[in-house]
Design a protein that fits this description.
16% strand; 28% helix; alpha+beta; 3-stranded mixed β-sheet
Length: 79
């Protein structure tokens, strides 16, 4: 796609976003000089909701037991 000036980009933003979603690289220019590039986000972060795993698993009581000495030593760099 050819560079598009800022004024045109403002009036055609939806169209330009659709082009970016199709994989096109949209260059925005000021007075013919490229100043910005519009591209899609590659990996938008998923929205995480607290408590979404409630009831799907149980933490066993042994989870709270002290760790063995050899593992504690490894954490403390004593190995």
């Amino acid at each position: 796609m050819d560079p598009i000036n800022i004024h045109s980009a403002k009036t055609q933003l939806s169209k330009l976003i659709e082009a970016a979603e199709r994989g096109e690289e949209v260059i925005i220019a000021r007075a013919g000089t490229p100043v910005a590039k519009l591209v899609t986000l590659q990996n938008p972060k998923p929205v995480r909701k607290a408590g979404s795993m409630k009831g799907r698993f149980e933490v066993p009581d042994s989870f709270f037991d002290p760790l063995p000495e050899d593992i504690l030593d490894a954490f403390e760099g004593k190995v």
